[in-house]
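Bumping with the actual sequence this time:
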Amino acid sequence: MDIIKQNAKKGLVTVKIKTMDDLWYLSQVIEPEDIVRGKTIRKIKLGKEGERAQKVAKKHVFISIKAEKLEFHKYSDILRVSGIIIEGPEDVQKGSYHTFNIEENSVITVIKEHWLKFQLDRLKEAKEQRKEDILICVFDREEADFGLLKKQGYKLLSHLKGDVSKKVEGVNVKNTFYSDIIRKIEEYDKRYKIRHILLASPAFWKEELMKTAKNEELKKKIVLATCSNTGSSGVNEVLKRDEIRNILKKERIAKEMGLVEELFKEISKDNLAAYGLKEVKGAVNAGAVTKLLVTDSLIQKSRQENRFSEIEELMKLTEQMKAEIFIISGDNEAGKKLEGLGGIGAVLRFKLNY
């Protein structure tokens, strides 16, 4: 994401979307009542009002809307922001509804009465992020799964099925399967410009596969790890391994897992933790919160149910006490665990009696 303009006095930030991940970051920033401004396509009626021959044409216009509804899904290429038009050219009716379809290369301005620190931090994080897509391959002697790590989680790319190692007409099927895995890794490496490859398997299969790899440049990108499963459970297992923490430490998903694990650790000790809206609200009002964790799923749901103001107020109070706020993606394992606690939790400075 490029931050083109930022005016603190006017509460104005203009950004350019560079990647699909930027849409996720922006979806955490735009709220109902915000002013969203940009260039868009609008159907315009041509001719005088009431004429039978009146035509409708699509036209590029520059308008501002007061945001009411926001839609973004995990695998979507578009962030949709809908609201009432408050500013535009003469041939665009004020008070009518419009939807901005924000996508890659879109330039958009967001105006707020008050920007929260965590919102500006999200934009800064999006601006500073490097395109460090990581390829994950989890496999055993029969199956292999490939996943692409993204800022908002990971996406399973494909699944390979092989045969149990045996000799067939003098051909070692195991080595053939390993060659298939290497070819698939090389394909994804070229397609996604991969920086790191996490290769994980039970037992010694990963070391055996490495003997098959001949591409020295590819081998430099590979980090070996251990897992007990393939599929999504294997990918989640690999993301927690100590030997790859140094690669994942800058990736949001690893950070989120660490935060949620910290919360669960405090809960298990019955110590410095609060979870669920009621408990967290009490902890915030008591000035006890040091880290507030909220899932993007809870934020989205609360907006749809017109009760986001309650969560927004908690965030404002949290910032006033110099505590940190973290938005956790509900699409990864960390977010799903937090969803099980009501989508909100807090690590505390001191223990409270509920």
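The tokens above came from a reply further down the thread. The chain has twelve helices and 18 strands.
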